[in-house]
Amino acid sequence: MQISSVNDVKIYNLSHGKSLPEIGKKRALQKKDVDIQRRMELIQDFEMPTVCTSIKVSRDGQFILALSLKFERLFFSFTVVAFDILSDDYSKLVFLHYNRYVEFHSQHGHYYKTRIPKFGRDFAFHYPSCDLYFVGASSEIFRLNLEQGRFLNSLQTDAVEHNVCDINPVHQVLASGTAEGKVECWDPRVRSRVGMLDCTLSSVAEGTEVEGLPSVSALKFNGSLTMAVVTTTGQVLLYDLRSSHPLLVKYHYYGLPIKSVNFQDHLDLVLTANSKIIKIWNKDTGKVFSSIEPQTNINDVCIYPDSGMLFTANEDPKMNTFYIPVSSTILTLPQELEESPESTIYDDYKFVTRKDLENLGLSHLVGSSLLRAYMHGFFMDIRLYHKVKTMANPFAYDEYRKDKIRQKIEESRAQRVQIKKLPKVNKELALKLMEEGDNEEELSARKKKGKVGALPSILSDERFQVMFENPDYQVEEQSEEFCLLNPIVSKVGQKRRRKKLRLLTEADQEEEEPEGCGSSDESSDDDKSWVDEVREQRRLIYEEGRDRRRLERKQQDCNTTLLDQDSTQNQAQGRKPGQKPRFFQIKAGEEFRSFVDVARKQKLQKASLEERLKLEERSGTVNVADTAVGSKQLTYTLKKVSHESDTIA
C-alpha cells in the first residue's frame, strides 16, 4: 500500500508493489522475502495479461469487468470499442466491436451477434423500452430493441458524427456529444430533440489557447439536472439542463483529450481524467480537491458505487486501485492497514563499492554468488567482510582506538573558550557583526514579542559564507556609495559606544547621569545627528567632485600652454605648424647649447662676410669660434681714414 498526500488529502494506492508470481512460487517467496510477508492484497490477482482498455463495476457491486487485448470469452473480433452491463450482475453483457459487430454474452459466454449499419463509437441502454442507442460515424442514432429483436427507426440529427452518448437515470433523456462540439438531447418517448448545447463557444474563454476544434469526448449525468461535458482539448463544462450557459468551466492545462468524467456524491466531487492525471475538484466551487498521477498512462476510470474507491485501466497489465476516505468513520480502516514506513535493513550484509573491493583485494569476486549487485555497488556477507577486513588491515583496531581518543579530545576542547578568528575578507564587517551579536536591546525586544531564542548570526549562516571568502565581495569604504551609507554605519558605531559607556557607568556606580540626556529624547537626538551626518557626507562628496574638476581644468590649461610653447618654438626654428622637428648630430669636441644657436650659426655660414660683419656690429658683437685647441674672441672696429693729408701732399 502506498500513501500519497496531495493538497493535504491522503490517497491510498491499494495495488502498489510488484506483481506476485504464481501460487506455488509465491508461497516459496513468502518464506524468504520480508516485503511479500508484509504485503496485504485487498483484491487478489487484479491484473491482465496485457494492457487494459476499459473497466466497469456491476450495479450490485459484486463484480468488476475489465477489457483487455486478450479475452477468455472467445470474441470473433479482437478490437472492442465499448461494452456495458445490462443486468445487475455479469449475466448479460453487450460488446461493440470495431468492425460494426454487436455481441451479446451471457454467463457462459457468447450468445448472439448482429451488425449495425455504420461504425460505432459508443452506445447506451434505455431500460424502460429495452432499446440500445448506438452512435458513431454517422448523423443517425441507431435503435436496436432487445425485446422485439429488431432495429427501429433511427433518430436523425444535425451532426456529422457522434462520439459519445449517455442516458439520464431520472427522466431518461438521451444526450449525444458530437464531433462539432455540440450536445443534442432527445426524449425517447416522443423520439424528438428537446434541446441543444453549443459547448465550443463556451469552452473557449479569453486567454485560453486551444489547438483544434473542441469535440465532445465524454459526458455524464448527475441527478436530474446536472450534466458534465468534457472535450478533446482539455476543457470540462458543468451544465444545468435549464440553462444553455455552463455553470463552471475547468481546464486541465495538459492539452490532452479528457477520456473519462465521474461524480462522487458523498463529497460533491467531480473526477476528470486524461492519459496522464486524474483531477478531483469540487463541483460547486471548482476548487481543486486533490489529484492522482499514476506511473503509466490512463485509459479509463471507474468509481465503485457509494464509496471513495476507484479503479483505473492503464497501459499496464496491473490495474490500479485507489481509495479516498469519504467520512471520518471509515478513516480508521485505511490507517490500520497502512504499512509501516520501515526501510529494509540488511543486517547480515555489508554494502561495498568497487573501490572497497579493490582495497580488500576482492575484485575477482564480481559476478560470483558471493556478491549481489545493488545500485552502484554490491552486497556481501558481513562475516566474509569482517574476515577479509581483518586480514587486509590487521591494525584496524588501533586506528579505531586512535579515532575514538581523538574524538574525546575534540569534545573536551569544545568546552573551552573558543577564540573567534576573523575571516580574510571583510574583517571590519565581521568584527562589527561579532560585537553586535549580543545586542541587549534586540534581545529584550524579542522577549517582549515572545520570540525568545538566539538571534541568527550572519557569520555562522552558510548562505553568507561567500561574503567573507570571495574577494569580489570586499566592501570598499572609500567608494561613493559607502560614503553615503557611512552615516548609518556611524550610527551603529554610536550605538556600540553607548553600550560600552553604559557598561562603564554600571561598573562605576558613583558616576551620575549627565543632564539633558534622557531616554525620551535619545531617538530624536539620534535622528537629528543622522541628518546632519548625511548632509556633511553630501557636502564632502560635492567638495571632492569640485576639487577633482579644478584639477582637471588645471591639467587641461597646462597642456594648452605646452602646445603654445611648441608652436612658438616651431616659428623660431623656421618650421611650419605641424612640421616634425629635425635631428642634428653633435660633432666631437663641440658643446651643445640650444637649437637657436645652431640655427643662427647655419644662417651666418650661408651669409657673406659683409653681412656677417654688419650683423655683429648691429648686435654688439662678439663672435665666438670654437675649435679643438680652444676658443678665441675677436673684436672688429672700423677706423676712419683721413683724406686731407693726401690732398696736401
From TrEMBL:
<dbReference type="InterPro" id="IPR040382">
    <property type="entry name" value="NOL10/Enp2"/>
</dbReference>
<feature type="compositionally biased region" description="Polar residues">
    <location>
        <begin position="562"/>
        <end position="573"/>
    </location>
</feature>
<feature type="region of interest" description="Disordered">
    <location>
        <begin position="505"/>
        <end position="530"/>
    </location>
</feature>
<keyword id="KW-0677">Repeat</keyword>
<dbReference type="Pfam" id="PF23098">
    <property type="entry name" value="Beta-prop_NOL10_N"/>
</dbReference>
<dbReference type="InterPro" id="IPR001680">
    <property type="entry name" value="WD40_rpt"/>
</dbReference>
<dbReference type="InterPro" id="IPR015943">
    <property type="entry name" value="WD40/YVTN_repeat-like_dom_sf"/>
</dbReference>
<dbReference type="Pfam" id="PF08159">
    <property type="entry name" value="NUC153"/>
</dbReference>
<dbReference type="InterPro" id="IPR056550">
    <property type="entry name" value="NOL10_2nd"/>
</dbReference>
<dbReference type="GO" id="GO:0000462">
    <property type="term" value="P:maturation of SSU-rRNA from tricistronic rRNA transcript (SSU-rRNA, 5.8S rRNA, LSU-rRNA)"/>
</dbReference>
<comment type="similarity">
    <text>Belongs to the WD repeat NOL10/ENP2 family.</text>
</comment>
<dbReference type="GO" id="GO:0032040">
    <property type="term" value="C:small-subunit processome"/>
</dbReference>
<dbReference type="InterPro" id="IPR036322">
    <property type="entry name" value="WD40_repeat_dom_sf"/>
</dbReference>
<feature type="domain" description="Nucleolar protein 10-like N-terminal">
    <location>
        <begin position="1"/>
        <end position="304"/>
    </location>
</feature>
<keyword id="KW-0853">WD repeat</keyword>
<dbReference type="GO" id="GO:0030686">
    <property type="term" value="C:90S preribosome"/>
</dbReference>
<dbReference type="InterPro" id="IPR012580">
    <property type="entry name" value="NUC153"/>
</dbReference>
<protein>
    <recommendedName>
        <fullName>Nucleolar protein 10</fullName>
    </recommendedName>
</protein>
<keyword id="KW-0539">Nucleus</keyword>
<feature type="domain" description="NUC153">
    <location>
        <begin position="461"/>
        <end position="487"/>
    </location>
</feature>
<feature type="domain" description="Nucleolar protein 10-like second">
    <location>
        <begin position="345"/>
        <end position="393"/>
    </location>
</feature>
<dbReference type="Pfam" id="PF23097">
    <property type="entry name" value="NOL10_2nd"/>
</dbReference>
<dbReference type="InterPro" id="IPR056551">
    <property type="entry name" value="Beta-prop_NOL10_N"/>
</dbReference>
<feature type="region of interest" description="Disordered">
    <location>
        <begin position="562"/>
        <end position="581"/>
    </location>
</feature>
